[in-house]
């Protein structure tokens, strides 16, 4: 049996498939949703809309995470770091699937601007990789720290009775902390000023827009 070697066009099609799955598809998770065994709570319409807005932000954040990791992996200097980034991206796919499921349960939808978020994040991830693996891994550390912080904010802002969303965000938060620690242990460096501040400002724009759109 002959083995077909993948061409550059094959790899391009694979990247396009990943992008479409992240933006508009329903990716399959490797782990069951933490909310699977939790009953749906009774919520007022305003509470449900607020919970959906928060989960839409988190879904968009996972779309961005997919793009960042794939952009970084595409230009990673070492095969080892590329494998590490793709493994982290696989866990982020779980988060993406869980958030998509929760949005459906809340009778809501993902952000209409997901194609824009994905494209911009892929470019940023590729640019970070061009700076070298230590900077790229440092970008992962800073990104995950900021994501962990905003997940903590969302856990405080969720309606008290929305236990389904809460357990999803708690597991996501634990994973993000682990990703940051792993990237730092692999040699991620602290990003110079003003990059962390610019990353925070861009995330604020995303959160404000994605909550509504």
Task: Describe the structure concisely.
The protein is an all-alpha fold and 213 residues long. Helix content is 74%, strand content 0%. It has one domain (42-212): Ferritin (Up-down Bundle).
What is the string of helix and strand elements?
HHHHHHH
Shape: globular
* CATH uppermost class: Mainly Alpha
In the CATH hierarchy, what is the superfamily?
Answer: Ferritin, core subunit, four-helix bundle
- In the CATH hierarchy, the architecture is Up-down Bundle
Domains counted in the coordinates: how many? 1
**SS-based class:** mainly alpha
Q: Helical segment tally?
A: 7
Compute the number of strand runs: 0
What is the residue-mean pLDDT, rounded to a whole number?
A: 88
Could you tell me how far the N terminus lies from the C terminus, measured between alpha carbons in angstroms?
50 Å
Largest β-sheet summary: none
How large is the share of residues in beta strands?
under 5%
Helix content, binned percent: over 70%
Radius of gyration, in Å, reads 17 Å
Low-confidence stretches: none
The CATH topology name reads Ferritin
What does this entry look like structurally?
This protein is mainly α and 213 residues long. It contains seven helices and no strands. The chain has helices spanning 8-24, 45-74, 79-105, 114-130, 133-157, 163-185, 195-212.
SSE topology:
Blueprint: H1 8-24, H2 45-74, H3 79-105, H4 114-130, H5 133-157, H6 163-185, H7 195-212
Helix pairs in contact: 1-2, 2-3, 2-4, 2-5, 2-7, 3-6, 4-5, 5-6
């Amino acid at each position: 049996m002959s083995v077909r070697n993948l061409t550059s066009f094959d790899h391009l099609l694979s990247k396009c498939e990943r992008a479409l799955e992240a933006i508009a598809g329903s990716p399959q998770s490797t782990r069951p949703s933490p909310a699977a065994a939790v009953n749906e709570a009774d919520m007022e319409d305003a509470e449900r809309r607020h919970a959906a807005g928060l989960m839409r932000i988190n879904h968009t954040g996972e779309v961005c995470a997919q793009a960042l990791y794939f952009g970084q992996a595409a230009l990673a200097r070492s095969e080892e770091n590329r494998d590490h980034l793709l493994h982290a991206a696989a866990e982020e796919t779980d988060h993406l699937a869980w958030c998509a499921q929760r949005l459906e349960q809340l009778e809501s939808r993902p952000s209409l601007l997901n194609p824009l978020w994905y494209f911009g994040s892929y470019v940023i991830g590729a640019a970070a990789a061009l700076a070298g693996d230590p900077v790229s891994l440092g970008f992962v550390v800073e990104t995950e720290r900021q994501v962990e912080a905003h997940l903590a904010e969302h856990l405080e802002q969720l309606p008290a009775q929305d236990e389904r969303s809460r357990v999803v965000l708690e597991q996501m938060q634990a994973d993000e902390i682990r990703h940051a620690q792993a990237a730092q242990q692999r040699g991620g460096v602290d990003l110079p000023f003003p990059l962390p501040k610019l990353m925070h400002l861009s995330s604020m724009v995303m959160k404000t827009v994605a909550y509504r759109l």
